[in-house]
Amino acid sequence: MAYLRFCLMTLAALLLAGPALAQAPGDGPHVRMELVPETATPAPGSEVMLAFVSTPEPTWHAYWRNPGDAGIPPKASWTLPGGVTASAIRYPVPERLVIAGLMNYVYEHPFATLVTLKLSAGLAPGTDLPVTVDLAYLVCTDKICVPEKASLTTMLKVGDGAVTAERRAQFDGYRAKLPRPLGSQATYQVAGGAFRLGVPYPAGAAASEVYFYPITDGAVDYAAPQAVARDGDRLVIETRAKGAPGTIEGVLAVGKDRGLALTAVPGTVAPAAQGSGAAAGGESLWSTALIAFAGAVLGGLILNIMPCVFPILSLKALSLAKANEEGGNPRGEALAYTAGVVLVCLALGGLLLGLRAGGATLGWAFQLQDPRVILFLLLLVTAIALNLAGLFEMLAPSAINRLAGRGTGGAFVTGALAAFIATPCTGPFMGAALGAALILPWPAALAIFGGLGLGIALPFLLLGFVPALRRMLPRPGAWMETFRHILSVPMFLTALALAWVLGRQSGVDGMALGLAAALLLGFGLWWGGARQAKGRSAWIALPFLLVALAAVAVVRPATATVGAKVALAGAEPFSEARLAELTAQGRPVFAYFTADWCLTCKVNEKAVIETEATAKALADGKVAVLVGDWTDGDATLGRFIEKHNRAGVPLYLWYKPGQPAPQVLPQILTQSTLGDLAAGR
């Protein structure tokens, strides 16, 4: 089918764009290729990796192993010496290119495909190994396609297998872009013309720009958009079906130059739960963004009944009613309040997206992971609560007072304050909306954060622009002072919750420091309020305020303590040097290799490896534990894993003293398996 599509496309190009073909820039090759060995002196019985280092000219592209709707994959014809065999070509994660409604899986930028040569153990050192490969491949622009050929040669000599550090780093970079084996079975379902793929994938593992590249032809409509949703410990990809060809192979992209090779079998795949964070492509991306935006607005609206926001909204509503009776500017105040809320939400959202782009794994309210921010919020909420209780009146420079007196300035500051102290709160619809924002393109993500701010400001915005709603508010009177005191109660409760969070983050010492700072602040505000009541200056409170704020710079996270569940407290990062050192000491070693995206790995770790029973068995047996984290596709770990005839994780190895070769354990572990090995049984 792919070849037929290519013939039809080439025929159309020749008929419609013949002059353009004659004017193609240069005579080629339009994708320059070079055959590079990782070592020129491979050892007998070893493997050596070759790279087709390819550089497309600007506007030209080459094709992946499945070219998509158009094109043909490259073909290699090898001429090899005796005792040498070549593997299939391995491809990095491709790019997508849509031309005239056809989806193409291509490479528009420099890339490298890899082949492994296996040498017979009987080859004598010093034997020359001439390697020749003839490549036939297609290169295209958005207007024309040109078949190209290349005959590449390299000379190897049987030797010691030494690899220079520079060449090793070069090939490690190539290997890092290859899809890594998922290690779990995926399932797909075809029903009603729809294709739904379920992929086991831990809920906490990072994933962005998710897309399924099918290797098996005829399974899906390549040009149809793909909707991707996270649903617990799985990813669900939905698109338009083309057929049901049995077992399907493919690559799941989970980030830039990061992919997982998977195999999917027919079965039943439940749809993602409603409200799961989703990231879609094409038209579905914008529908996802609109749904997330609506969820953010609704979630922000619900936040107004939370203890940390409701008192502020209520006070502003009452002040708006008072301003309405006195001929104020309710619409201006409403717009200023909304501007303050939305700008703070956009600033926090933009900062979050920037930190995530820099590699940090953060979510909404990320700033609350820092006890210094929690202590600052504790002092701020305490001051607001004491103000509502009538202990003092807010102190502000005359310029701010004048600004607030005109209405809009005070409303803007109040809106910014409401948005900032709303971050410790959460509510329905917010989780899915903000989760979607973290995997959507940044313009859509910022729109969702703005929608959250709009939802928080919506009640006050409606009061400002709908006179009938303002007329429904009670008339100002003496009762407002009592109501203000009542509103201090939820603010005190919020302060109590923040003190608890501070204790969780910084321990008993941190909580004591926070309470002492709040007490000192309260004393200063009480003293200042007492002087206010007598008509005197209240600036005596300023030194207490500054000393209380100084505690923010002092508080620190609590030192991590080792609990009973930290089953492998003595575990060390894996390295072959450390493994050799431990085995030389005669110690038993348990080495396991895992990845954040490997669901089987996580199940084994939570159910077996990180349990108290396993921890005690390993400790009693004086077993050393080495952990290899392959989440980022570390090339050194990858080579070690391949040495044990495994393409990916999980991999569990047990090194028994006196035995040079490790025992490869099953991929599904049990506590009794590790307990028996630790006991020498």
Automatic annotation (TrEMBL):
<feature type="signal peptide">
    <location>
        <begin position="1"/>
        <end position="22"/>
    </location>
</feature>
<keyword id="KW-0472">Membrane</keyword>
<feature type="transmembrane region" description="Helical">
    <location>
        <begin position="446"/>
        <end position="470"/>
    </location>
</feature>
<feature type="domain" description="Thioredoxin">
    <location>
        <begin position="545"/>
        <end position="681"/>
    </location>
</feature>
<protein>
    <submittedName>
        <fullName>Protein-disulfide reductase DsbD domain-containing protein</fullName>
    </submittedName>
</protein>
<feature type="transmembrane region" description="Helical">
    <location>
        <begin position="373"/>
        <end position="392"/>
    </location>
</feature>
<keyword id="KW-1003">Cell membrane</keyword>
<keyword id="KW-0676">Redox-active center</keyword>
<keyword id="KW-0812">Transmembrane</keyword>
<dbReference type="Pfam" id="PF02683">
    <property type="entry name" value="DsbD_TM"/>
</dbReference>
<feature type="transmembrane region" description="Helical">
    <location>
        <begin position="482"/>
        <end position="502"/>
    </location>
</feature>
<keyword id="KW-0201">Cytochrome c-type biogenesis</keyword>
<dbReference type="Pfam" id="PF11412">
    <property type="entry name" value="DsbD_N"/>
</dbReference>
<dbReference type="Pfam" id="PF13899">
    <property type="entry name" value="Thioredoxin_7"/>
</dbReference>
<dbReference type="InterPro" id="IPR028250">
    <property type="entry name" value="DsbDN"/>
</dbReference>
<dbReference type="InterPro" id="IPR017937">
    <property type="entry name" value="Thioredoxin_CS"/>
</dbReference>
<feature type="transmembrane region" description="Helical">
    <location>
        <begin position="508"/>
        <end position="527"/>
    </location>
</feature>
<dbReference type="InterPro" id="IPR013766">
    <property type="entry name" value="Thioredoxin_domain"/>
</dbReference>
<feature type="transmembrane region" description="Helical">
    <location>
        <begin position="290"/>
        <end position="313"/>
    </location>
</feature>
<feature type="transmembrane region" description="Helical">
    <location>
        <begin position="334"/>
        <end position="353"/>
    </location>
</feature>
<feature type="transmembrane region" description="Helical">
    <location>
        <begin position="412"/>
        <end position="440"/>
    </location>
</feature>
<feature type="transmembrane region" description="Helical">
    <location>
        <begin position="539"/>
        <end position="558"/>
    </location>
</feature>
<dbReference type="InterPro" id="IPR036249">
    <property type="entry name" value="Thioredoxin-like_sf"/>
</dbReference>
<keyword id="KW-1133">Transmembrane helix</keyword>
<dbReference type="InterPro" id="IPR035671">
    <property type="entry name" value="DsbD_gamma"/>
</dbReference>
<dbReference type="InterPro" id="IPR003834">
    <property type="entry name" value="Cyt_c_assmbl_TM_dom"/>
</dbReference>
<keyword id="KW-0732">Signal</keyword>
